């Protein structure tokens, strides 16, 4: 059982990190807020979004802010993801974006995605040690009909992508990148890289603190009086041991805040579980069967995607869908589903020993793309709806949130910050629909 944002009314605090493959050493424990404070800007959530926002507010705009988290930095997705640093967010393909917004905007979006990878790269290069693994990323067509649309987007946008995406034939995938998996080919992103996401999040937190920003851990926001009342001059944020008075509220809680906590976000996202398993170190015989290029990361084109990478200690990380509810998240059935998925993907392996299994909530927006939004009347900003692809993008989103607050006219013209997240039309049906989708996918066997 894990905390469930659609069921629980308060996020648990002071929780240990999940037993993932990432938590490797003691890190600083940020103290809880224990008195009333006043600040210009309060940020809720110490994942990449919140920390990157604080970093840019402090470094670019010399703004005073504080960051609170119900737990320690990286307790949410940012400390438990797969560590794929990729150019992308949301769930729309390039052809879908072109259809909706046209070619010029799609190119700008793709540039933003590339910039987000560069933003992570710059932070790491400037001294965040997070076990970086270069090796690129393949989007793998799991059957022939999925290859043409992947390659088509390269033909349509070759001038934008230049050498940032390379088409791969079936034979190239097999001979040069990944021999142990059946595929029809794919596309390769050479600039993508893997990291230990938990170490990266802590490195970012240390950076932020060095800028004089106060980070409070184990400090859940349990209620807030927002500025819906036009006469109110400040937000009042209630935590168990102190109130925060803030002119501006920035919500960086991703899928993790209780659904009813923020009226501005109620029923605007759908928390869905993604789970990961990590094997024991593979033997040299097993590694020969994988035939996987060092550092390579892969995600396939199934409706319920699998993603995997070989870690530097020869452990295989394999992720995919999890349970529908928090109550069932740790049930052994879901670990077995993922284990079976791994063995179906790598049929030559026959068996593997699993060492770690954990889950987290990703945040699906109704129309499949994220939003970075400023409600100027209430003075609330949020960035949300990354649809499970938010490592690099959330770092960039932090920069954009700071910019949206202080110099919005300088933002590139992208649909991401021109509208609010859409409300799910039948919010109570979300989980029933997800159950249906999982059952249908199982029936179709894809
Ligand atoms: C299993 C899994 C694998 C993934 N793999 C990848 C990947 O490989 N690549 C990729 O690009 N993306 C991946 N993602 C998605 C990616 O991790 C997220 O998009 C990203 O980390 C979001 O960062 P964030 O800062 O917005 O949110 P989070 O890191 O989730 O942080 C939100 C924080 O808000 C805090 N919070 C919530 N409510 C409150 C409250 N009321 N009071 C105080 N604090 C509160 C939480 O404690 C939490 O720490 C994965 C996600 C999961 C779950």
List keywords for this structure.
FAD/NAD(P)-binding domain; 11 helices; eight-stranded mixed beta sheet; 446 residues; alpha+beta; globular; binds flavin-adenine dinucleotide; 22% strand
Structure description:
With 446 residues, this protein is of the alpha+beta class. The chain has one domain: FAD/NAD(P)-binding domain (3-Layer(bba) Sandwich), CATH 3.50.50. The chain is 30% helix and 22% strand. The strands form three sheets. Strands 1, 2, 9, 10, 11, 12, 18 and 19 form an eight-stranded mixed sheet that branches. It has an eight-stranded mixed sheet with strand order 6-7-5-14-15-16-13-17, sandwiched between helices. α1 links the parallel β1 and β2. The chain is globular and about 65 Å long. The two termini are 28 Å apart. The structure holds flavin-adenine dinucleotide.
Gap from first CA to last CA: 28 Å
Number of strands: 19
CATH class: Alpha Beta
**Which range best describes the helical content: under 10%, 10-25%, 25-40%, 40-55%, 55-70% or over 70%?**
25-40%
| Low-pLDDT ranges | none
Largest sheet: 8 strands, mixed
Counting structural domains, the number is: 1
CATH fold category name:
FAD/NAD(P)-binding domain
Coarse shape: globular
CATH architecture: 3-Layer(bba) Sandwich
Strand content: 15-25%
Would you list the SSEs in sequence order as H and E?
A: EHEEHHEEHHEHEEHEEEEEHEEEHEEEHH
Structural class: alpha+beta
Mean pLDDT: 93
Protein name: FAD-binding oxidoreductase
EC number: 1.-.-.-
GO molecular function, one term: oxidoreductase activity
Keywords: Oxidoreductase
